Amino acid sequence: METDELTHSVWDITEDEFPVASPLREQGKFLLRYAILAPSSHNSQPWQFAVRDETIEVTYDETRWLEVADQDKRELFISIGCALENLCIAAEHFDIGYNITYHANKDDNLVSIVTLETESEPSFSRPPKLFDELTERYTSHQLFEDQTISQETRDKFSRTIEEDDVTLYLINESEQKRSIGELQADADEAQMADPAYRKELGYWVGMGALGSSWLMARIGQAVVTHFDLGEREGQNNSKLIERAPVIAVLATHADTPTARVKAGQVFERLALLASAEDIAVHPMSQTLERPEMRTELAARADTEGEYPQHLFRLGYVEEERTHTPRWPLESQLS
């Protein structure tokens, strides 16, 4: 699928490299070096960019769509929203204005157009410390410590949301977490029982997209593809949810591609804020990948008629921060 190899070198970027005296086109291309550091489902990195003078067209690459796990492209649009948010944060840091036009609801691969401006004030000011976390943010799969997240910190999360049509639900009540954990176990077992799902997951594991060495990636691909590990995964992930200090759900009023893009922007903003607060983040999507379980999650999370788009854990852990590899920016420009 890719001619370029996955690499960790893309994380080695410093703001001193920003081309201050260059045209907006070159500055915009530099901003995309931060955009591609965004998280994505299975680390599929489904975004593509076209830089045209003062505009950046954001599209999706259908060859990186998870057709089995993500049949309605919910996770694809959330992933692209994360990259779009990184782009916005980097632009603000370098005093570049921007305007976003969303196109995701149309029947083509165009998701949004970002128009860069040399003189413009953003309609919403994100916390400045988020920029520093663009190269620090990571995902943790570990069991979180038994340490509560303060109300003050949870309020900070809520204040970072400007979108009227995206709602953050923070769940810390034990019985509610247990109920969601049970649903997670059921989702894991159902997904892993599907050979097509295991084959797709095995493909991405085998590519090394999740950060394993070549040998371990190949071994992991064989194991995931040929063995139903649903019960084991379900028990483990259920425990991760039940023991997390906070379970977060992002929900939207509408269930459209654009709503999902905006949910992705909010998630990335929250993930970067969590990183700044030394709080680990772990997205868990299985319950959202099956329509009947997504409906049940809405009931158990009490999303008040809104559509759940993203589920993730928040908590503390003693862990060295590690990054998953990325394809070079050049392979994602069209």
From TrEMBL:
GO molecular function, one term: oxidoreductase activity
Name of the protein in question: Nitroreductase family protein
Transmembrane region(s): none
Organism domain of life: Archaea
